[in-house]
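Amino Acid Chain and Its Fold in Token Form
===========================================
Purpose: to set a sequence beside its fold so the mapping can be learned.
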Amino acid sequence: MKAVTYQGAHRIEVKEVPDPRIERPDDVIVRLTASGICGSDLHLVHGMVPDLPKDFVIGHEPLGVVEEVGPEVTRVKKGDRVVIPFNVSCGECFYCRHGLESQCDNSNENAAIGSVFGFADKGGDFSGAQAEYLRVPYGNYLPFRVPDDCELTDEQLVMLSDVLTTSYWSAENAGVKPGDTVIVLGCGPIGLATQKICWLMGAERVIAVEPVDYRLDHARRTNRVDTVKYESPSETGNLLKEMTKGGADIVIDCVGMEGKMTPLEYVETMLRIQGGSQGALTTAIQAVRKGGVIQVTGLYGMRYNGFPYGDVYIRNVTMKGGLAPAVHYMPVVYDLMRQGRLDPSDIVTHMMPLSEAKQGYEIFAQRKQHCIKVILRP
């Protein structure tokens, strides 16, 4: 089959790789019809996640049709249309039973972390979804079967795998409630979807922060938010504090480690002594009110020099975050879309054949053609 493969930092290639096969009795093979390019994929391609092997298939936002099932699979059958969450989780361990499927103990031999499709050894060594076919383990737990009468499009449904579920969890985990002022850092796919969901949860004011003009324009036009162009942590943080008269109730960081780096952060990141930019985190700390909440959704590295924890402690700020447990949020978000209360269609700006994935990554990474979200079609 054809798949998007990692070929070293800043290099990918669409090439022929072996077809997946049933390896365990509860496996499912899915013929993919759509797969998103995520900001987290850029971390891989840019070499910010170390030790990714050459030829590894990347991607973790799958939508498709069941092609084959293992002998123990009863939840889905051949021909079913399914969305697969980006987390790989068993449904039976302590964390899965307590709503934290992103930290599943059984899906990754390195039990210190959970599993994600397309993240090589660190993510459980599950091949990725930017391909023609995907092996899905735990077939009686992971797949979300799309109802036969569903009228939602592929570009809407594929957002269930990560973008919408992560965004919904972000707002819920942050505790967004009626009357809150919420600052969302980042106007990429997760940031834009999070803004929409904050309104659904009753926020009184939503402020979007982003350094790229066309993304700010998109947020303002589609999400009715106030907007602030990001300049630097101190300048932007001070402006946000002034706008909110002392800081927002909640700041949600949808940027992560590939935010705008200082020269020192860039050098330290290349030397593997820093986990990328911490500009968004610093901005969040400055922009949240005393006793407020910072929700960290963007992906970060493991170590950060000069992290201003004292500013968090002395002001009684609560920090939350991590990988969203997508599995149990898929039905929730699907219902919101089916009811017409949530529509992510405006976020998808590019639909491209899998064969043009290299161009898709370039457009997405370099923010060409006003790109926000690229969906690949095998």
Summary: The CA atoms of residues 333 and 339 lie 10 Å apart. The first helix runs from residue 39 to 45. The chain has two domains: 2-161+325-377, 163-321. The domain at 2-161+325-377 is CATH 3.90.180.10 (Quinone Oxidoreductase; Chain A, domain 1).
